[in-house]
Amino acid sequence: MNSTESFTMRTLKLGLIYSSLIFNVFIVYKYLDGSHLVDEKWSKSAAGEAEAVAAVSCSGHGRAYLDGIIGGDGTPVCECNACFTGLDCFESVPECVLDADSGNPIYLEPFWMKHAASTAIVVSGWHRMGYEYDDGSLISQELRSEIFKLHDIVKNVNTTDRYIIFGAGSTQLLGAAVHSLSLKSSTPTKVVASVPYYPVYKSQTELLDSTKYKFTGDASIQNTSDSSTSFIEFVTSPNNPDGQLKKAVLKGSNKIHDLAYYWPHYSPIVSPVDEDIAIFTLSKLTGHAGSRFGWALIKDKDLYQRMVKYMDLNTYGVSRETQLRALKLLKHVVRGGGQELFEFGYGTMKHRWELLSKTLQASKRFSVQHLSSQYCTFLDKHRTPSPAFAWIKCEQEEDEECSKVVLGEAKVIGRAGSLFGAGNDYVRVSLADSQDHFNILLNHIEKLVSQEKIGSGTRFHFYNTANQTWHANYQFMGLDQDIQCSFDGSSFAHHQGAATIAAT
Amino acid sequence: MNSTESFTMRTLKLGLIYSSLIFNVFIVYKYLDGSHLVDEKWSKSAAGEAEAVAAVSCSGHGRAYLDGIIGGDGTPVCECNACFTGLDCFESVPECVLDADSGNPIYLEPFWMKHAASTAIVVSGWHRMGYEYDDGSLISQELRSEIFKLHDIVKNVNTTDRYIIFGAGSTQLLGAAVHSLSLKSSTPTKVVASVPYYPVYKSQTELLDSTKYKFTGDASIQNTSDSSTSFIEFVTSPNNPDGQLKKAVLKGSNKIHDLAYYWPHYSPIVSPVDEDIAIFTLSKLTGHAGSRFGWALIKDKDLYQRMVKYMDLNTYGVSRETQLRALKLLKHVVRGGGQELFEFGYGTMKHRWELLSKTLQASKRFSVQHLSSQYCTFLDKHRTPSPAFAWIKCEQEEDEECSKVVLGEAKVIGRAGSLFGAGNDYVRVSLADSQDHFNILLNHIEKLVSQEKIGSGTRFHFYNTANQTWHANYQFMGLDQDIQCSFDGSSFAHHQGAATIAAT
């Protein structure tokens, strides 16, 4: 700065210095007074906690939760996917046995992680403390509204003139429906379902041991000629375990339609179900099985009121946190006409079904359910079902207990067919868990199938010619296989032999 | 700045300008890159929504919720306290009838609003989607741990060697306990409770209509000489509706101890309850009735396992959102040894009980339960109970149905005594709702009592002396009263008269 600076320049510099100083003071003030600089006030601490937990790295093979067990470093521990372990889920469990018994819908987790910003909720300490909503009911009107919007989009059920009731999962609603239907009848009601059926129908009905109803078993073998006996028939469509679309078997029965899987993720939407009782669950729609949220659409007002009474006395409704969360998730689903979720769900399940069913097609020892293509109104095209479960059958007589075969030889825990009222030559295995889980499942099933036979035309060369047992290593279906063979000297050439070998 | 400025000064100025500029650029960069300046990323939008709803003004007579019905301005509407109305809850409902039937624990709401920052939770879209926790159970270990800490502080129950099970409110656990206890017995079990009892014991047991148990009524009139009959006795302590500490009546019965109100808010803690089944609910501890969360402490392993099975088949556990929220709330309670919550709770209930019982003491027509002072180990002093309900008795024969009297003459809806197995000369009225609710309740009860008599010695001066009817306006107990009296010429002086007048 020399003495010949113009007045303008000097003013400019002074202005710069002073305004800069003022600006700095202002910024520092605003920064210290957090309430102005950031939007969150009381939610800030909670937001920070949740963000920190979400950022915990579990090597892509697990995740941490806000309420997880606190580890040595004071933060919640990683909870690992199947067959992964270690503090950060990096290590594979050696000789891992894969539990594919439960239908845990974790395949949808990546979808919600991707849409983190629009699917989080902040629950204040004083959120909905009261027993009822403002209208005196136990049901969120906004959530009710969102559910009806969703059904309007997917057209999987007729909602016209329907009453709606919420439950803690479809689990609670199934029991409420059986109970409430049975009150109408003066004689004990027989509760039935066609085989194979979802095991909970039987175990739940038996537990309650009511004077008014009894689980009687397979719907297709019931004698309906006695008009004094009333029936309640569970119609599960798509069916659990085999994914088939189904209709009622008995004429004149009270029907409970369990439509847990009647969404584009798993099934063509062929037409809107138009029945007396239609039950859905968030577990299979969004994957939030832990939230315990389901709903039933009821035609008859009397029946609806009886179910409301049952819900009142059983649990006095569904928690307010759960209803708030379901609202947020379903708002996200409905936005954009449901396309995002259903594309993700269908895309994932379709791919998995193709891979697994193709693997099992190569097998003579095992078969899997055949599912026909049908026209889907939602996707506006023909498509095959993409079920959440493989309903595997052991075709060979000596494989009497299929679940034991699959466990012993493939290290996969499935659910035995007898639990579904079917034979133990069947086993149900879940395709709906995490990607890690499915990868391991596929790998184990591929190995299992590959052990069946090496296939005609596969040639091996051996250098031993004496009567003895030897081992060979070969590749089948891209997997290393070890076999042990006996040579009785008659079937092979002396020196270098080539033979077709069947597994022992 | 003149030309004789020293080098130092010029350097200082240059330094000031440049560092200021650098600082400004840095600050602007940080401000624009929100992720650095603010902690929230994906939770930001959810936090903003929640904060905005919390800031909705409802004139101090209500509040808005995140999932409230959306009003014309696109934000959730105000949900008003009893007898308030209008878009912002500013208007009083004329001739309002106050619903004091339900035990909605809204008196605790201000406590949670005050502790907003440490009691909010952010629930991510992928929080705990699976059916089970990492250990395969349906129970959060962290929450379990917090509950045991709380009981260690309050010493209201013995938790040593106890199994714990969660339920959707104590509602679900009561039913689970009855069911599971009855499975042990080969003969139908009689379910009893001493009068007056909480109505749900009867209605819930009757609804389930099991072959294994029946609600039989008043425990104190049961014939226990038949050893083939087993009993299940509900012991509610403090009792609902009358707040009395109670013990079992029947010897040899299976006992279910319902300890919903056994907290310092309502009762002296005289000793830790040491029984087979002890049931608690979040509803009465923190006031979160809408969350549907309770827990049972069980001594016997077999019974515990039967209750777990019941919970599995009824609802498959309690929602993950609810357990996360309960954990956050209880962590806050436990911090600081529970002092804050219990001081607030006890302080509020004590004050309300004093005001209401004092009002009713002035009455000959109505009485309220007498509650004795006892030593409280938690507060380390003698104290009277401060119950959530007034158990009002109509003392006059002509007031046959006390709930109708209180409704018709005080415009207060209470719950009739017959629902509690008692006579209809009783009515239960809640003291546990919002401050607005209690103010109105007190006001209505005061008016009701004031109408009984003007009291001896109250003197009025009249200027009419002819035989006629006239009206007088006076103040009794601080309230304006209008009365109509007849004068037959014999009891009053001619001109200015003064008389003791009884209400007609």
Describe this structure in words.
- Two copies of one chain form a homodimer.
- Chain A contains 13 helices and 24 strands.
- By secondary structure, the first copy, chain A, is α/β, with parallel strands linked by helices.
- In chain A, the strands form eight sheets. In chain A, strands 7-13-12-11-10-8-9 form a seven-stranded mixed β-sheet.
- Chain A starts with 6 loop residues before the first helix and ends in a 5-residue tail after the last strand.
- Strand 6 of chain A pairs antiparallel with strand 6 of chain B.
Report the strand count of chain A: 24
- Quaternary structure classification: homodimer
Structural class of chain A: alpha/beta
Distance between the termini of chain A: 97 Å
Largest interface: A-B, 110 and 111 residues
> C-alpha Rg of chain A, in Å?
30 Å
Q: What percent of residues of chain A adopt helix (DSSP H or I)?
A: 25-40%
